[in-house]
């Protein structure tokens, strides 16, 4: 996947756990884990909005583009 969500860095900067973020945004730990591990195929704008609100960041700080390896 070329676009991924970088939750680790934002959580580390805010000294926040995935559990705490889950409680603040109202998203299950399992769903946040899917985003965190790069297994998500899509993300809703409402989810992105809640993450940015609680992490105090812009969408561009969460979304990263990486070149895919062509095999």
Automatic annotation (TrEMBL):
InterPro entries: Cro/C1-type_HTH, Lambda_DNA-bd_dom_sf
UniProt source species: Pacificimonas flava
Protein name, entry field: Transcriptional regulator
Example of a GO MF term: DNA binding
Signal peptide positions (record): none
One Pfam family of this chain: HTH_26
Domain HTH cro/C1-type: 13-62
């Amino acid at each position: 996947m070329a676009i991924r969500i970088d939750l680790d860095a934002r959580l580390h900067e805010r000294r926040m756990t995935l559990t705490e973020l889950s409680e603040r945004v109202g998203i299950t730990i399992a769903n946040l884990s899917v985003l965190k591990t790069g297994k998500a195929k899509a993300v809703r704008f409402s989810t992105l909005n809640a993450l940015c609100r609680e992490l105090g960041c812009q969408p561009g700080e969460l979304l990263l583009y990486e070149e895919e390896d062509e095999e």
